[in-house]
Design a protein that fits this description.
By secondary structure, this protein is an alpha+beta fold. It is built from six helices and 16 strands. The protein is 31% helix and 26% strand.
Amino acid sequence: MELLHSGKVRDVYLDGQDLILVASDRISVYDVVLPTPIPDKGKILTGLSLWWFERLSDVVPHHVISATDIPADLAGRALRCRRLEMIKVECVARGYLTGSGLADYRATGAVCGIPLPAGLVDGSRLPEPIFTPTTKADPGIHDEALTFDEVVAQVGRPMAERLRDVTLEVYRRGSAIAAERGIIIADTKLELGLDAQGNLLLADEVLTPDSSRFWPAAGWQPGRSQTGFDKQHVRDWAAATGWDKKPPAPEIPERIVRMTRDRYVEAYERLTGGRWG
């Protein structure tokens, strides 16, 4: 296999006409890969993505060809996938206000040019989910928020509308399923691409703790930072160290590693109803 790309979490190999997408145990915050891996993280992300791909296939087809026709040493963490022409827009849906969306709202009263009601706080539920796309920046460069009109200028109105509609429907469907299992999906990021016939396909990962913010519904309380099943507490720990958010990043303490793995496992088990390991 030929290594095509090594990202913050995934490595992409070319195998004939197909791609082999390998999820590592690496974890990144603030666009920097931390030096300490999280055991089993890659397998959890792969298993959860497969579970979601199956449940969302009537909304948008996906790029997975096989989860078993892969090298034996990559079993559980790799997928054989179709090669796509990736859309150069990060497709983000938000149902709750937090993170960069909250910062945008505090500065402008809007997110990605979408006006929101006054008086919202960290963790507020939005009147309806919104499409808040960003640029797809090179490694080490922060993605920048885009308005819908800027997406139209980049990919054309028909494709922009398709990206928006698919992203919001994936979010609505996923949020409804997660809510039945006591999890709030505050926001999520999708990767979409075109196959050789021009069909739009869902790629990379979907509705995982790496691509989404998962909050326990029972503990949701607007007006404060929410606890979750994602990597937000790793961000919080890293920020509290005084690290300047530039490489090299600090080693993650064992207690944070253990907590992170436990949160990812709990998210997997709550959503799928199965036992991990």
